[in-house]
Write a structure and sequence with these properties.
This protein is of the alpha+beta class. It has 15 helices and 15 strands. The termini are far apart.
Length: 429
């Protein structure tokens, strides 16, 4: 009487990870098919025709016997159970076999759903993480259908609206905003739906928690179903009020710097300092360019070798090394004017950092050519006789002392020649 069903059960059990057992009213195992039981150490030939309680492990039969009894009473029960070694999960269905209104036997059909369960658990964890992101995100995350009804609204969205999720979900967007704000937001939404592509917008929204109008950057995108049909609009909005304020302040600071930089009476350069030690001018004010008879645009780039006097190039390199070592690097440098004249400048560099983290050298220069010329003239007067132009006695004694010291140090002979000019006193007097 069971032959037909056993053939069916055998066909079912030929599927990977499936086992079928047939129990009679005496709780004997009438048939066993499939591979699921084999992997847990059961041998079909040792089970068929024997009482189930003798053929199965006690813990397994204790769990199964009430379910077999229910199936023999005409009930169908489906459960999930783990294998005894906890390595697999099975979905087992206990069902009666009926013929002519009679229950002839019960079956247990088990299929391995370990992969499905693992996937469900992974999905559950992913859903939990997504929910955590939604609820704890500082950004407003939301979704509305094509009738502008709220479908998703995270905690930040609800906070900005001053509503609970239950007050928002299913309600039209128009109820959450003032009419003038709604019209602007709705126009942006319609533009996204019409274009069927993601777009970003700068929007103004009043935060219900503070009553303060906030600058919001919103990325809005069409939401599609599995067939690719647009079914709504999703959005992510970030409060950028502080960023906007900082941007305005930065723009004002840059404008002030540009004004001061360009109108400063002292020459100023901004150079980018590279890792290999070389530098390039990225900004030059009019005062510096005018000092060298040039236009600011002519002094951009790696122009150090062109504008610094050849004899001071090494001094310039030492100045930059001193600067990078954290020491005061102010020095007097000679520059070359367009017409070839030497320009003396008191040069004071400082090291700072640019907006992208690059090292910048800000150089301030003061033209001291007149001072240097005066110093040279005073030195000439101090070293030379006003009448003859010859070295003065003081300078002669300094040079003599220096030469005597050099001769002693190198153990070399030294000669001094004294010339007497007859009648010179009369001329000198």
């Amino acid at each position: 009487m069971l032959a037909g069903d056993e053939a069916l059960h055998a066909a079912l059990a030929s599927l990977p990870g499936v086992s079928v057992m047939v129990f009679d009213h005496a709780l004997r195992i009438r048939a066993v098919h499939g591979t699921a039981l084999l992997r847990h150490g059961y041998v079909h030939e040792h089970m068929t025709g024997r009482p189930a309680g003798d053929s199965m492990r006690p813990a397994a039969w204790t769990r199964m016997s009430p379910l077999v009894m229910q199936a023999l009473d005409g009930q169908t029960v489906t459960i999930r159970q783990r294998s005894e070694d906890r390595t697999a999960v099975y979905e087992s269905t206990f069902a009666p076999i009926r013929r002519g209104g009679r229950i002839l036997a019960a079956t247990m059909t088990s299929r391995d759903i370990t992969g499905q369960v693992d996937a469900e658990e992974a999905l559950s964890q992913a859903t939990g993480r997504l929910q955590a992101v939604l609820e704890h995100s500082p950004m407003a995350i939301y979704m509305r259908d094509l009738d502008e009804r709220w479908i998703v609204a995270n905690a930040e969205t609800c906070g900005i609206m001053g509503r609970s999720a239950s007050d928002l979900l299913g309600k039209p967007m128009a109820e959450a905003f003032a009419p003038e704000v709604y019209e602007l937001l709705s126009a942006n939404d319609r533009e996204v739906i019409a274009s069927q592509r993601a777009q970003s917008f700068e929007e103004l929204v009043t935060d219900a928690r503070t009553g303060i109008e906030r600058n919001v950057w919103s990325l809005k995108f069409p939401v599609r179903d599995a067939a690719g049909t647009v079914i709504g609009l999703g959005g992510v909005s970030l409060d950028v009020t502080e960023r906007e304020r900082a941007t305005r302040e930065l723009a004002a600071a840059r404008g002030l710097f540009e004004t001061v930089f360009e109108s400063a009476p002292v020459g100023m350069l901004v150079s980018r300092l590279h890792e290999d030690g070389h530098s390039e001018v990225v900004q030059c004010n009019f005062a510096f360019a005018s000092m060298l008879g040039r236009h600011p645009s002519e002094l951009l780039g790696e122009v150090g070798a062109e504008i610094v006097h050849p004899d001071d190039l090494e001094l310039r390199e030492r100045m930059l090394l001193e600067l990078q070592s954290g020491r005061n690097a102010t020095t007097e440098l000679r520059f070359v004017h367009r017409d070839g004249r030497v320009i003396w400048a008191l040069t004071s560099p400082s090291l700072t950092q640019g907006p992208d983290g690059e090292r910048l050298v800000v150089v301030q220069t003061v033209d001291i050519s007149d001072r240097k010329a005066l110093e040279a003239q005073l030195q000439h007067f101090a070293d030379r006789d006003a009448l003859t132009g010859l070295l003065s006695r003081r300078r002669f004694e300094e040079d003599l002392g220096r030469e005597v010291s050099r001769a002693r140090r190198h153990r070399r002979p030294l000669a001094l020649l004294l010339l007497d000019l007859d009648g010179f006193k009369a001329v000198n007097d």
